[in-house]
């Protein structure tokens, strides 16, 4: 049930040099699932379910920004399943011939404003994020949550001047949680998963930038049958249950 950090991913990219492979030596099999950072909690639960149903299978979650994951896959990283936070980054893998079959949308998500408990800065909506007295953080433009932020800016005519642009939505959330930012644009699901560590300020303009989440088994999967089974788990009742638990919408 290990989550892959960048160093671990580098080792995977050089699997032969690191002396690792899927299932050699101990009779176990490894399923590498590349998933958007916003899926951390839901896929963590599905990882446990899948391993409980498949003895000897180790699901390894590589959680990061979808743009980063798409690049890693296209550069040859060993991946069996890809779950993206938007269609644009899935299309990059599709266009490179990396997908087995057609990707299927399994969830939707919307932006919200994460603030400290009690909302001490009195933020009431998206336009407030342009206030000069606020430290605001967002996702980088190439990341799905950053792309969605730009769509809301265009729809509202409000231009933000963020203190930083992070590489995934969890990094934005952490800056708010740690008090390094007054507000951050994250997904509804991220605030739900954070519990009482942050609060959410909803804004109606978020409906202008709803993200569709597609999933696909990959054509270069080392475990193609397991990849299809994990995809089906996400698309099935168990997947819908875990996704709804943390606030994802249905497609």
From TrEMBL:
InterPro entries: ModA, ModA/WtpA. Residues 1-23 form the signal peptide. Keywords: Metal-binding, Signal. The keyword Electron transport does not apply. It comes from the Bacteria. It holds the Pfam family SBP_bac_11. The keyword Metal-binding applies. Belongs to the bacterial solute-binding protein ModA family. This is Molybdate ABC transporter substrate-binding protein. It comes from Prauserella endophytica.
């Amino acid at each position: 049930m290990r989550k892959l950090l960048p160093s671990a991913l580098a080792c995977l990219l050089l699997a032969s040099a690191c002396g690792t492979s899927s299932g050699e030596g101990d009779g176990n099999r490894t399923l590498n699932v590349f998933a958007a950072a916003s899926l951390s909690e839901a896929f963590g639960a599905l990882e446990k379910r899948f391993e409980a149903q498949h003895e000897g299978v180790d699901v390894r979650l590589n959680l990061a920004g979808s743009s980063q994951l798409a690049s890693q896959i296209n550069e040859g990283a060993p991946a069996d399943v890809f779950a993206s936070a938007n269609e644009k980054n899935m299309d990059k893998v599709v266009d490179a011939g990396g997908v087995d079959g057609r990707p299927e949308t399994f969830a939707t998500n919307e932006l919200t404003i994460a603030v400290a408990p009690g909302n001490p800065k009195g933020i009431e909506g998206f336009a407030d994020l342009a206030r000069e007295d606020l430290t605001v953080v967002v996702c980088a433009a190439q990341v799905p949550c950053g792309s969605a932020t730009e769509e809301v800016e265009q729809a509202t005519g409000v231009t933000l001047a963020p203190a930083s642009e992070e590489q995934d939505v969890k990094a934005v959330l952490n800056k708010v949680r740690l008090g390094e930012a007054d507000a951050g644009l994250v997904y509804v699901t991220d605030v739900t998963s954070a519990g009482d560590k942050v609060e959410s300020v909803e804004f109606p303009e978020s409906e202008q930038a709803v993200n569709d989440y597609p999933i696909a088994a990959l054509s270069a999967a080392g475990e193609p049958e397991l990849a299809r089974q994990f995809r089906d788990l996400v698309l099935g009742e168990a997947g819908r249950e875990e996704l709804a638990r943390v606030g994802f919408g249905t497609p």
